[in-house]
Amino acid sequence: MVEMTVESVRINLATQQRVVILKATKQERYLFIWIAYAEAYAIAVELQGTTSPRPLTHDLLKNVIEELNAKIVSIVISDLIDEIYYARIILDVDGRHVEIDSRPSDAIALAVRAKTPIYVEESVLERAGVVPEQNEEPQPPNVRSETKQEDEEEEEENLDAYRDFINSLDVLDEFGKD
């Protein structure tokens, strides 16, 4: 498993889709996970150190876990099946190891509140992780074609399109921003 941190939460202004960008702690590797508005908001609010007058859903979940004398040990983004990410929340309940199935966005929102590590299985990073070239924005993995020349041409087109896309995203600096 590879430990990751939340690098940022961004929004595509044209489509209003949100993405959380995870970055490996010890290497230049990224994972992009598209998430819903509510989870993007929940993650962004916590990253900005902002509090709500009443607990948000992820605050409530954290409070319930703590009141039951359990500890959130970590979260793991464990699988990628048919372009859907899967995650587990790892708990210590009175010395007993408990794993709870979760959407990655909810697990990440909980992890940033509980200040617990975020891990991604190596197999997920091999399929969906991004390793940017020097001095470039993170790029998505490319599907390889059959010849090297086709690969190079396709890679350059994909990089240009992806570079344009990343540059069109806006960091969610203001949690109420649409």
UniProtKB/TrEMBL annotation:
Compositionally biased tracts (Acidic residues): 149-159
Pfam families documented for this protein: BFN_dom
Superkingdom assignment: Bacteria
Region (Disordered): 129-160
Domain spans labelled BFN: 1-132
GO molecular function: nuclease activity
InterPro entries: BFN_sf (IPR036104), Bi_nuclease_dom (IPR003729)
Protein name, as recorded: BFN domain-containing protein
Organism field: Dictyobacter aurantiacus
